Structures are given as C-alpha cells and as structure tokens.
Amino acid sequence: MLASTIAFYLIATAQYIRFGNAFKLTPYNSETCNSRSLGSWVGGPDQGCITGTDAAAGVGASVIIETTGAVDDNFYAVFFDSDDCNPETEMPEGHKDAGCFSGNYGSYAVWDVGS
Q1: Is pTM, for the whole model, over 0.70?
Q2: Euclidean distance between CA atoms 82 and 69, whole angstroms
Q3: Cα 36–61–74 angle (5° rounding)?
Q4: pLDDT per residue as tens digits for the range 24-54
Q5: 10 Å Cβ neighbour count for 41?
C-alpha cells in the first residue's frame, strides 16, 4: 500500500513538472544578464503569452533562461517585439532553450516544438 501511494505521488509530480514547468527565466535591467535582477518566472507552454511588468516583459533588457531538466527538452522560450506574442514579431534569434538572451522584448512564451 505504501509503495503504491508513493508511486502515485511520484507519477503525479512528474506529470505536473512535464506540463507545468519548463524553464526558469530571470530578467535583468542590462543587456548582459548581469545587472540587478527583476525577479524570476518559472513556467512552460501551458502559461501562454506572458506580458506586463509583473513578468518583466516590456521592462527587461536581457534574460537568463535556465532548464528545469529533461522535462523541457522540446521547449523553447520565444521572445517577441510585440506585447501579444504575435509570431510575426518574433525577435531575431528570439528563441532559446538556455543561456542569456539580450533584447528589449515586449512579451514571451514557452513553445513546445515537438516530441
């Protein structure tokens, strides 16, 4: 009984991570990802388009994208000039799965690019 209960919670946790979280994004004031942090955001494709100052969209000049593990292998953080994640406004080199992205983005989203 205990083993099946533990297995259930492990599976439920793995499913939450798979569909709930994909990246940790930490935006910065400077274009070099090394000034004062503007906070952080953890999420994945199910959060949709992220806009507004609460998520530093439209405010940050750069952002560090950190993986949360193999769960996000098919995911990319995609950055846009617009404030509505319009695919026509994707920024040059505006998709990353890790590292520092520099640019004054207006919105961002995490996309699942396949399995």
Answers
A1: yes
A2: 29
A3: 105
A4: 889 888 889 988 888 888 888 888 898 876 5
A5: 20
